[in-house]
Amino acid sequence: MNIDSTLKLGWEEWLGLPDLSLPAIKAKVDTGAKTSALHAFDIEAFGSAAKPNVRFAVHPIPGNTSLIITCSAPIIDRRDVISSNGESELRYVIETTIAVGGQSWPIEVTLTDRGSMAYRMLLGRQALRENAVVAPAEQFCQPELNYDVYTASKLRTVTKARALRIAVLSREQTNYSTAKLVSEGESRGHVVEVIDTTRCYMAINAKAPEIYYDGKRLPRFDAVIPRIGASITTYGCSVLRQFETLGTYCVNGSEGIAASRDKLHAHQVLARHRIGMPTTAFAASPKDTKNLMDLVGTAPLIVKLLESTQGKGVVLAETKKAAESVIDAFRGLKANFLVQDFVKEAAGEDIRCLVIGGKVVAAMKRTSDGDDFRSNLHRGGTAAVTRISKEERDVATRAAKAFKLGVAGVDLLRSSEGPKVLEVNSSPGLEGIEKASHKNIAAMLFDQIEMRVRPEPLKKVRKKPK
């Protein structure tokens, strides 16, 4: 609190609400009103009964709905407030700091939609301390501010951390990765909800697209962390597209997840971006079996189902004869598969690079169990932290970028020709790499989310020369 001397206020003043990341608001000072009011919309309570909070959005500039500042604060009360037109409204009440004329002090503010009003804030008499004198015939007695503080360069310096509402799309609430994401988010003061993807359903229309869950419309989320299982990829991506339609920030997009899950599509994406990978071939006709193997090279060969995961549906054929038998078996099951060169020098080892926000934040070497050529931890493989080369780091980040993934597990093989991408995982597990690297990967992911979920800055309009 900073109250030094008598503060003279006119009926119209500029002020700031720094706790809410609102450095400049034009307010009407009205001693006839008892309570102060702040323009807010999308008002939504969250948290526990013991510690209730409220999230709300503000258009700080009258007539400009493109700039939205999302705020959060503890709820201190709910009150019936009678407006100037005589209508009663039950409003949330918060406490926040007001800054005006070089002085600051805490005030109580009610939240209500003042979108149709000329002033985004009404300063009532309860907010005026003994040192304040109101001159009703004057205006702007204190230094005037301006809305330039909401431009990109300045907004970053005034935006404070706020409670976010985050959804984790997962069917496994007790899974290590899901549970870690929830605990990490809540430790930062965010509200993190686990949403079972298959229990979501959607209203698809042009004017008001919505997502429903267990009979109720889902609230607006600041961010979504998709952890969609391979068995529900198609439906999970449909739900995620609906979040994208609503403008929600999704750590990984539906397009990237869908492409990464289809092994053929994934390798085509890698090829398009000139990213090294084992030689791969695909065909539908049984007549092309021999030519298919010839394209890849000599045995041993890898035969892989297009939707394989955690090493399942991946077979090592030691000879061409064995490869033909595996291919015939897969075709008999009407399964889609591809044939791939076996990188012998990898010797049952691969490198998992965890990429977040375009940077490799951790890497581990996975080694297969015994004679198994697959190094997946789910198949008994072991993991240890490892140092990666600049070339490996570059390949991993390029692969994640090719799929437009905010978080990705990029699996590399160390071949005589350099690193080759084996797979790009759009829902990488956190347990193995956290234990191997001794890093809090979940915290790094939330750092990225908090950085990305920021208000859109005000775009400066250049004045045309006269």
From TrEMBL:
GO CC annotations on file: cytoplasm
Keyword Nucleotide-binding: yes
Endpoints of the signal sequence: none
Keywords: ATP-binding, Ligase, Magnesium, Manganese, Metal-binding, Nucleotide-binding, Protein biosynthesis
Cofactor(s) the record lists: Mn(2+); Mg(2+)
GO biological process: SOS response; translation
ATP-grasp domain segment(s): 267-450
One GO MF term: ATP binding
InterPro entries, alphabetized: Asp_endopeptidase, ATP-grasp, ATP-grasp_RimK-type, ATP_grasp_subdomain_1, Peptidase_aspartic_dom_sf, Rimk_N, Rp_bS6_RimK/Lys_biosynth_LsyX
Keyword Kinase attached: no
Stored Gene3D superfamilies: 3.40.50.20, Acid Proteases, ATP-grasp fold, A domain, ATP-grasp fold, B domain
Family: In the C-terminal section; belongs to the RimK family.
Protein name from the UniProt record: Probable alpha-L-glutamate ligase
